[in-house]
Each structure stands twice: as C-alpha cells, then as structure tokens.
C-alpha cells in the first residue's frame, strides 16, 4: 500500500511534469502563431474519391488508385477555417502550386472584442523568427527603455561606446 | 568618432565624423542648458521652482512655456496617455525635454553642415538626414552604413538585440519606452494594473513624436497602439508581457539585413 | 470488582467459539477502500507539487536556463511555486475536511501538515534568496542591494511581509520554540499564516510572468487558492457555526465522579444528527467570559442520545480546571466530530482495547458503539490507584451486556523496568499475548498518557500485527 502510494506519486508527478514541459515547448516553438490549417474538406477535394486536379491519376485504375495514390493536395488557393489563437481569430488562405505552399495570406484577424481588424498600418502579431535575422546585423546604436546612468554601464550601448563603434 | 557623456540622468552617445569632432562641445552645451532648466533633481532649476510654487507659470521663460505648450498639445492628441504632469499633479516635462534636446542638437549639427551623425540619449536615437547627401557622398562617408542602423534592445535580456532596423530619411528617429522590467518580472511604478506592453519602440520622422508616442502606447496598451498606428505615420514594434511581438508592416520592411 | 489477567503459563481460557456474525461489516474491504483513498491523497499531494513546477515549464520555462542569472532566477521561481503549493496543501490538511478526516484521521493530517512546514518555509526562503541573487546577477549588483529595487514593485512590499510572517509562523511552531508559548499565543501567531497566504497572492499574479493574465496557469493557481481558502472557510468556520447553531448545546450538569474528574452532561437539539461515533472527539468552546477564548479537544465519553451528550474531563492545567466549575446553562459551540479512533477504522473482526487513566473516556464510548460478536472483544483497563478507575463500572456493564471480557490492572508499574503493566502482573508473567490470544485477528485500540502508550504501542508492534490494526490515541489531559 505504501509502495503503491510512492509509485503512484512518482508516476503522477512525472506525467504532470511531462505535460507541463510539452505545453511549454509548444508555447515556445509555435508562440501561438503556427496555426495548423484545417482546410475545408470541400475545397480540398477529399482525397481518393475525386482526385480533383491530380491529372496523373485516372478514375478506375482499381486498387492502385487507393487513397495513398492521391499524393499531395491539388493546386489552387484554399481557405482555411477560422482558428482562434491567443491574438484573436485568424483565417488564412494558402496558395499551393506543384504540391508546395507558395503563399499564405491572412484573411481575417479579429481583436479581443471580435471586431475584424483591417490589415493596415496596424501592428499585427509577428513571430520572433521574422525579426531574427536582423539581430545579427551590426549596429552603432541601441534603442531601449530609458536606462539610468548606472544601468547604462551594463548595457549594450555602453559596450558599443567603448568600442567606439 | 564616438563621444559618451552623462546628461539628464542617463548617458548620451554622439557620433560624428572626425573632422567635426569639435562640435561635440556645442552638443554638450545644448544638453547642459536644457538640463539646467528642466531638471527636477536640481532644486534651483526653473522647472523645480515652478513645481515648488516659488515661481508662477506665467512668469516662466519662453522656452519653458513653449515646451509646456507642446507637451499639452501631445496630451490632448494622445487622449491623456502622455502627460506633462505626474499623478500627483506636479509638472514634469521629462517626457518631452530629452527629445527636444536631441532635436535641438540635431538641428545644430545639420545647420553647421555636419554630413553624418547620430545622437543617442538613453536609448532615444536621431540620425542625420542622409537623404540630403548624394549617394556618392553617402558611400564615401566616414561613418558607413552602420550609423544608420539602430538595434532595439531585447526587454527580457537587455544585453541582447530584439531586432535592428535601418533609420533612413525621412524615418530617422526611434524611441523606446518600457515599463521598467527585470528578468521575468515586470512592473510599472504607481500602477497595479497589468502592463500589456513591456516595451514599445516607435520609429518616426522626428524624435519628439517617436518619444511621446512610445510613452503613450506603454501607458495606454493595445487601444493606444491601434489608435497611434491609425492616426500617425509611424512604425511600431511592441513586446507584450508574454514576450510576444506586434509590429507594423513598415517596421518589418525596415529590418536591417546582415552586412 | 477487578478481573485479573491470566499469566502465560495458565491454560487457555474456555471460550465459546461463535460463528462470525453474518451482519458484521466487511472490515477488509472498508480498510482497502480507505487505503486506496489515502494513497490517492498522497499521490495528489506530490502531483500538486509537480504541477506547480509544471506551471513554470508550461510557460516556456525550459528556455530560461541559458545563463547563470536566468538559471538562478528560474530555480527561484520554481521553488516559490512549489513552496506556495505546499503551504496551500497545509491549509487543506488543517481544514478538517471530512473526507480527509475519515480517510487518514485528524492526527495523521496534522502530522503531515507539520512535516510540510519546514520544507515549505525553506522553499520560500530559497525563492526570495534565489530571485534576489538572480536579478542581482543580471543587473550586476549584489543580492542585498537588489532588495531596494524589488521593494519598489507594486505588491512586492506585501510579498516581503508575507515571507516575514511565514517565518514567524513556522519558527513559532518548532517544538523547541512552541513549548515557550501558551497554546493561545502560538495559535494567534499561527493565524497569521492566513494573512501571509493572502499577502503573497498579489505579487504572484501581478509580478510573476508564469501566472500572466489570460493563461491557464493563472486559472489553475487561483483555483488552488479558492480550494485551500474555501475549505478553511467552509470546514473551520461555516460548518462548525451551522452545526453549533443547529444543535444549540448547553451545559446540563457537571458531576464530579472522582477527585479532579468531572463529567459534563450537555443538552441540545437532535444530537444524533451529529453522527458522532464512539471514540471521536469534538472541539468544544464554552461561552463564559472566562473560557470562551479557549477551545478544548475532548472525546465523547458516551454516544449522544437525541438530546444529550457527555464528556469527561480531568482537572489538569488552567483550561480544564475551569471546565470542572462551568455553570449549568452555559452555551457550548462545537467543531466536529473528528478522529479515526472509532469503529470506522476497523480492519479486523475482533477487538482488543487497552486504556489507562483518563484515556478510558473515548474507550467507554467506543465500546458502546463497536460491533462485535459476544466473546470477540477483550478490554484491559489500567489505573495506578483505585481512585483513577473512572467509568470502569460503566465499561464493565457494557462489556457484560455485549459479551466482552474485561480485565483490570490497578497498581504502579514495576521499578527499574519499562512496562505498561502493574508490578504485580509483570511479576506473574502476564504478557500481551496471554491477555489477548487472538491479537492477530483483532483491532487494537490504545488510549492513555503518552509515556504509557509509547511502551504498550512498542509491545504491540513487536507482536507482529499489521500497522493498520493498531489505533492509538495519546491522552494527556
């Protein structure tokens, strides 16, 4: 009975930690914007039956024409269903050519009040990876929240100043 | 040539071509004059005397009245998110005088004909209007393209860059405002309301606009962000509590590419 | 009136072998259910600690171990989360939730509560120290200098006060320190833990990034607080208040049954509705100007009838001395019933009951309620002098009526030997086995003063019966 409690505790604690870790990893990698695309079944042309747009496969090739033969989705632009993210609802259109995604367009962004946000000069959520490459560019100045003279000493700007950049 | 000196409770870094090095003295003098007038730390500054009630506002010097009027205009333009008053009502022009000082110093450098320069005071940066220079002079300029590049500090780790971008005429000013933060923990003095943005950087054509709007967005959160991007021609990148980014399309286009 | 125990050498007692009573509860199954529940509680305790750490991982904490400063900070955050979780678990354990009381008993719950105190405090101290160090490292100043900037954050001054209070609460509960306090003084300090828990919450929600607005982590954390504080409010305050108002107990009579020992007869409404089992205790508060601030955990000495209940108190110490002179008509408020020293804890069909001194009082009520077939219960009553044979007459009468054997031992213990028996019985060669030949099939209920109980409990353990068959209650007042 005691052993059972110990084993149960270890098992439960480990599972809880693993779940937490998994949740944490998906937060950091997807950061809420890597949206899996639930593509409309109708526009996707449910694989196997219609084989829409897949010229290589002909109806009536018997067993070989089973679902796996319909490799890759058809070319064209597909509209996904609306997906809620931590930033609001997002709906995207995907353009596929020769089996690969060539363009992804955001069709709908709504704010917390459900109002649809115009794609305009407004600040929209972006991924950190979108600004990642600029991090390594050489700069001569750093803009940051106002630092005190003390904090300046440990700032990047101080290092740049000392290097005479 | 780079000169760093303390002013207005922070540090200023001024970069000038070697031939124009002597101008740094004039720049320092401009900052000192303004600091003397507006510092609330020194009890005999004009602003301190007004804040203490020793001098009445109606007897204030014309430059101080001009700054105050400009700050009040910004207050109504931002719906109160920017204010020249502390919560207790004390007049405090800190939010605008630093940017005004940068603006004045920049005007001086342009007036004397210095071809390329950058001024960074406590993270607010203004660069020379390189658009005025011909492409030929620009490439032969003594400072090179790096001067036109500003990094934005990563709020969660101030020794790293969040991103960097090109400051090009007319977009030659950037200011960053933040709720003071440390590691994972975030605060905003005097308010217990959760801060929606930890750090906001605004790129604008002039440094006062950039500075004021960055402050206004930090104070007003998402609503202020949308309002500012709708009504002003500026680019913004904001970092929220969770570390997620929001950016205007223009800012993404201005991102620096590796040399 | 005393029945002597047979020594080992004597021939076996002729006993009527009665078939097991068909209606007897299935003790093994009941016990298995309690054991399962108790294991589940242990699992829940550890899982809640793990969940606190998982909150940090779930908010992307794994990435926070890239530099020394961040690692220190991250460990600090995790220890704060786990430490706070332990504090909340301690509140739950101290809340006297009926489910927990029925499963592991109030004593075990408080023992676990106590054992969590120091680890929780260490974790919270580490939380403070590590965060000061971590932030100090990242901004290049020493941890002490970091206190200033930290205090300028909203809610942080409260958090520092909360930590200070928690230190006071745990230190005042260390055995060495607690002895210097009166119970009331200690209890007053202990109540500060509620203030501490409340003061610590704002900084967790406003300053910590792990529990940021709109996250599931925040929802979970607030739910934890609601459960912990909710069970305290419900079971420590609301439920006792409702029960006291409903049963409206008053002192009906105070009778001295021996020098310094009195029974207090209580009258009230629908006292069967208390659903108290023999052997359980209540926490009593007698509303006179002298005694209202002092609460007394005292066992019932008889099963309540519809309109009356009875406790027996010994004049020991200031608090209980006042009880023996309590005026008739005094209002009484109650918390309870609590405790697993009752038939609910049974694991075996037979009963072995051993009680000493004032420890006979719960045993008297226990025996009254216990279910057993005639011949399946043996009671051994122990007293130092004939004056201390409280309620023995009642116990012997119940034993006779229900077909239980009742042995008595009166006299002082042997000199120079650690024994729970009288010198005379010890010399005659009486042993636990000679008195209780069916010990292996019995539940052993022990009640008496701590020193005596330690001796007999050791003896019972040596006999090789399973730990769950032993039910001990230390009774020093």
What are the salient characteristics of this protein?
heterotrimer, A: 165 residues, alpha+beta, Sufe protein. Chain: A, four-stranded antiparallel β-sheet, C: 477 residues, alpha/beta, Rossmann fold, Four Helix Bundle (Hemerythrin (Met), subunit A), Elongation Factor Tu (Ef-tu), domain 3, 3 domains, five-stranded parallel β-sheet, 14 helices, 11 strands, 16% strand
Quickly describe the structure.
With 165 residues, chain A is an alpha+beta fold. Helix content of chain A is 30%, strand content 20%.
Helix content of chain A: 25-40%
Number of domains as seen in the coordinates of chain C = 3
CATH second-level architecture of the largest domain in chain A: Alpha-Beta Complex
The string of secondary-structure elements of chain A, in order, is HHEEEEEHEHH
Strand order of the largest sheet of chain C: 1-2-5-4-3-6
Please tell me the overall pLDDT of chain A. 61
- CATH structural class of the largest domain in chain C: Mainly Alpha
The largest inter-chain interface, given as chain pair and residues per side, is: A-B, 46 and 64 residues
Distance between the termini of chain C: 26 Å
Estimated structural class of chain A: alpha+beta
Would you count the extended β strands of chain A for me?
6
Order of helices and strands of chain C: HHHHHHHHEEEEEHEEHEHEHHEHE
Describe the structure in your own words.
The complex is a heterotrimer of chains A (165), B (259) and C (477). By secondary structure, chain A is of the alpha+beta class. Chain A has helices at residues 2-30, 41-44, 129-132, 149-153, 156-163; strands at 76-79, 83-85, 88-97, 100-109, 124-126, 141-143. Chain A has 2 domains: 12-70, no CATH class; 75-163, Alpha-Beta Complex (Sufe protein. Chain: A). In chain A, strands 1, 2, 3 and 4 form a 4-stranded antiparallel β-sheet that branches. In chain A, a hairpin with a 2-residue loop joins strand 2 and strand 3. Chain A is flat, with a radius of gyration of 25 Å. Chain B is built from 7 helices and 12 strands. Chain B has helices at 23-38, 46-51, 62-77, 94-111, 135-139, 207-231, 249-254; strands spanning 2-7, 10-15, 118-121, 124-127, 149-154, 157-166, 173-178, 181-182, 185-186, 197-204, 235-240, 245-247. Chain B starts with a strand and ends in a 5-residue tail after the last helix. By secondary structure, chain B is α+β, with helices and mostly antiparallel strands. Chain C has 477 residues and is an alpha/beta fold. In chain C, a hairpin with a 5-residue loop joins strand 4 and strand 5. The two termini of chain C are 26 Å apart. Classes of the chains: A alpha+beta (165), B alpha+beta (259), C alpha/beta (477). Chains A and B meet through strand 5, helix 3, strand 6, helix 4 and helix 5 of A and strand 1, strand 2, strand 5, strand 6 and strand 7 of B.
